[in-house]
Structure formats: structure tokens, C-alpha cells
Specification:
Oligomer: heterodimer
Shape of chain A: elongated
Number of helices of chain A: 3
Distance between the termini of chain B: 102 Å
Number of strands of chain A: 0
Shape of chain B: elongated
Helix content of chain A: over 70%
Radius of gyration of chain B: 33 Å
Radius of gyration of chain A: 17 Å
């Protein structure tokens, strides 16, 4: 098996995550799809680290994980704040700027 | 030489089995995440994808990242997701009906285009040399190798990212902090407001539910002196759920006396 198969898997996972962000309405599910995209990128980093034979890719994947954790913390706090004022976790309901 | 390239560039047979079993399951779980209705089910499928990715990391010579993936993602992040799901609860946003007409076919089409583009690109790309394999870099141990890079080449990004973590923690605290707009009323102020208010109807508190000595449960409204039910005696959420019984069933004339007759 070629190590590049992991890259194909990563591309497919990223695509699925991107579709999820567009299609789903629940803000929490959309967030999980963003996490899926970040994870797919991480898988690419780890695979390239293996293909290139140095650990730089793994260090970058580590940084990506930290950024993802920060993003989840702030994003979920925003979701809770919006839920508190609008009683809904739907992305379509948060359309104050449209009107 | 070509023998060596095969040994290094091609992965060993056990890893191939692992990949071909786990990768389709991962893809199915990721697809399921999109398609299931309930957000909780999405979260569980997401946790499966995370664990599978951790296994892939470990199989690819990144044991440190694999463990961090399990600890940070399936441990902390997924728990946070489930916690927020509990807090927010289930609402209409879980439904899969599309609100923008034609969004779904367009999204699927775009995904096919993007995915096809990525796959075709990866299929045609060549490195120009054979893959090296991470065994050499891991010779001193994976954690030691990452630590050496993290504290030499990447020490400045490492410091910046720690600042980012602290900022995110503070930001979450600020967002989650709930200020009261007005001062909390004391018991004395509440009592004065009750008697100086518009009417004295609720000055002594709301009427208790239940029909005296016949059905005292909270789902039956109390009867007023003229025999009509008192709507204020019933909890509004019971009313919204439609769990309120009709108090006329418990009025004197219509009580079922069959038990008495049997005696």
C-alpha cells in the first residue's frame, strides 16, 4: 500500500466536512464539520511528515490541534451566547443583519 | 536500491489491512455525521472519526500526536461539544429540511468537483523521489524528536500559540460571563411590588392546582367559586405540552361512582 492513500482519505474527509458546513443548519454540527476539516488537514501533515522523513509536519499538526482547541472554546462560547439571547442554535435564525 | 525503495515507500502488510478496514469505516462515519438527524449522533460519529485518525497517526510513526489526538479531541473537545449540546438542547435546527432552495444539489455538485479535483491532483502529483519514511527521524524517539524541534526551530510559534490559548480561554470567560442588566430585587421589594401592582388578584400568590379531595395532581386546574376552572393555577409549561386534564370531570355531578356501588 502506498502512503499516498492517506492523502486520498484526507482529501475525502475534507470534502465531507466542507459539504457539512454548507448543508447543516445546527451550529454545533457545523462546528463538528469544521473540526473534521482541520483533522483532515492534520492527517495530510502527518502523512507528508512520513513521506519527507522529518518531524516538521508533525509539529505543525500539533500546532493545528492547539488552534482547533482554541477555536472550539471560543466558538462554543459564542453559540451559547447566541442561544441565550435567541433561544436557538440554528444558523439560519441568526439573521439580524439581513433585516 | 529499488528493493529498498519498496521497503521504505510501501507500507508493511499489517498497516495495509488496518488502512483498508478502518478507512472505509472512517469515511462512512464522516458521511453519517452529515446525514443523521440528531446532533448527539453526529457527535458520536465524530468521536469515532477522531479515534480512527488517532490510530492512523500511530500507524504512521506519530505516536505522540495519536495520543494527543485521543486526549485532546475525543477527551476534551468532544466532551465540550456534548456538554454544549446538553446545554442548548434539541430544537428545530436539527431538522434536515433545506431552507435555501437548491442548496443541497449545488453543495453536492461542488463537493464532487472539489473532491474530484483533489483526488485527480493527488493521483497525478509525483514527489520526484521515493518516500523516505519517518523511522530515521524517530530514531531517538518520537517525543524527543518533536520536543527538539518545538524548542529550537519552532520556539517562537510555540510561544505565540501559548498566548493564543490564554487569549481563547479569557475570551470564552468573557463571552460566558452573564451580567444582570438590573439589580436583583430583594424579597422586600418583591413583596411591595405585589401589593402596589396593578391588581390585588395575585397578592396572596397564585391559586394552587387540583380539585379539593377529588384530584389534587398539578395537571388539574383549581375550580373558582362559580365552578369554572382557574387557568392561573396551572403551570404554563404543562399547558404548552397539552398535559392538562379537564377539571369538569371531577365536578360533583359527573363523578364516577361505580366503585361505591360495587361496595
Amino acid at each position: 500500500m502506498d502512503a499516498a492513500n492517506y492523502l486520498y482519505l484526507s482529501a475525502l474527509l475534507f470534502t465531507i466536512g466542507a459539504v457539512g458546513v454548507v448543508v447543516r443548519r445546527n451550529a454545533i454540527v457545523v462546528f463538528m464539520c469544521i473540526e473534521l476539516m482541520l483533522n483532515a488537514a492534520n492527517l495530510s501533515f502527518v502523512t507528508f511528515s512520513r513521506i519527507n522523513g522529518d518531524l516538521n509536519g508533525q509539529v505543525i499538526a500539533f500546532f493545528t490541534m492547539v488552534v482547533a482547541a482554541c477555536e472550539v472554546v471560543v466558538g462554543l462560547a459564542i453559540i451559547v451566547t447566541i442561544y441565550r439571547s435567541r433561544r436557538s442554535a440554528s444558523l439560519d435564525d441568526a439573521s439580524l443583519l439581513k433585516r | 536500491m529499488s528493493e529498498l525503495a519498496i521497503q521504505v515507500g510501501q507500507t508493511a502488510a499489517p498497516e495495509a489491512y488496518l488502512f483498508w478496514i478502518l478507512a472505509p469505516l472512517t469515511l462512512l462515519a464522516a458521511l453519517g455525521m452529515l446525514l443523521v438527524k440528531k446532533a448527539v449522533h453526529s457527535a458520536i460519529l465524530m468521536a469515532f472519526v477522531m479515534i480512527a485518525l488517532a490510530v492512523f497517526y500511530i500507524a504512521q510513526g506519530a505516536p505522540f500526536l495519536g495520543i494527543v489526538q485521543i486526549v485532546v479531541y475525543t477527551g476534551a473537545v468532544m466532551m465540550l461539544f456534548l456538554f454544549i449540546l446538553m446545554l442548548v438542547g434539541v430544537d428545530s435546527s436539527d431538522s434536515l429540511t433545506e431552507t435555501i432552495r437548491g442548496l443541497r444539489p449545488i453543495a453536492v455538485l461542488a463537493a464532487l468537483g472539489f473532491g474530484g479535483l483533489m483526488l485527480a491532483l493527488l493521483g497525478r502529483a509525483t514527489l520526484g523521489r521515493s518516500a523516505v519514511g519517518v523511522e530515521g527521524a524517530n530514531a531517538e524517539g518520537n517525543v524527543q524528536g518533536i520536543a527538539k524541534l518545538l524548542f529550537s526551530t519552532f520556539v517562537w510559534p510555540f510561544e505565540v500559540i501559548s498566548a493564543l490559548l490564554i487569549t481563547a480561554a479569557l475570551g470564552a470567560m468573557v463571552l460566558a460571563h452573564h451580567h444582570r442588566i438590573a439589580e436583583r430585587p430583594t424579597q422586600r421589594e418583591l413583596s411591595i411590588a405585589r401589593f402596589r401592582g396593578g391588581s390585588l388578584a395575585t397578592a396572596a400568590g397564585l391559586p394552587a392546582p387540583g380539585v379539593f379531595a377529588r384530584h389534587n395532581a398539578v395537571d388539574v386546574p383549581a375550580l373558582l367559586p362559580d365552578g369554572t376552572p382557574a387557568p392561573a393555577s396551572i403551570n404554563a409549561s404543562l399547558k404548552a405540552r397539552g398535559d392538562v386534564l379537564d377539571s369538569s370531570r371531577f365536578q360533583l355531578g359527573t363523578v364516577d361512582t361505580s366503585v361505591e356501588d360495587e361496595k
